Amino acid sequence: MKILGIDPGLRKTGWGVVLWKKNSFSYLDDGFFFQNDKLELGQKLLKIFDSLNFLIKKSKPDIIGIEQTFVGSGSVSSLKLGMARGVCILTAAKLGIKILEIQPKLVKKNITGSGSASKEQVNQMVKTILNIVPKNEDSSDALAVAMSIQSKSIGKLDNGKYSSNLDQAIANALEKEKINI
Q1: pLDDT tens-digit profile, the chain (181 residues)
Q2: Which residues are catalytic, by number?
Q3: In angstroms, rounded to a whole number, what is the distance separating the alpha carbons of residues 177 and 161?
Q4: pTM: predicted TM-score of the whole model, two decimal places
């Protein structure tokens, strides 16, 4: 399964593509879209749309993961980040690619084992897992999102079967646990 991870931002949108095959990840590509600060908001959003549209058509992912917005104290910056996320989600939907959202803390926990890990710790684990040096911090975060989203994408397929024997065993165990409660 080819997974595109996105770390959205108005100034820089990071992206990373990995392949999940035989229970391991292979690095395919990473990068970022950089915005000129002098562009108006609408032009920045259009540039994100055009760049991501091109990337999706080029990389042909099976699924896209996007980091959810962490809402901090700056409501204006959170709103603008939400606009960038919205454009990313719209682009994927327009091209018919399934998109899954994931919380930043869950990305950190999946990659490092700790939901409160620093960006440096996440970057170091991305380097270790994929045996590469990401192009920048934003693309490193996007690669972490791509690897983390894989755990949300497994499970029941559209035909009602499970995507792996492990998923089936987990489902059976959870069902048995419900019966024993």
Answers
A1: 999 999 999 999 999 999 999 888 999 999 999 988 899 999 999 999 999 999 999 999 999 999 887 666 567 778 888 999 999 999 999 999 999 999 989 999 889 888 889 999 999 999 999 999 999 999 999 999 999 988 665 444 444 555 555 555 655 665 665 554 4
A2: 7, 67, 138
A3: 20
A4: 0.81
- State the residue for tokens 């993961």: 65
Cα separation of 180 and 13, whole Å?
47
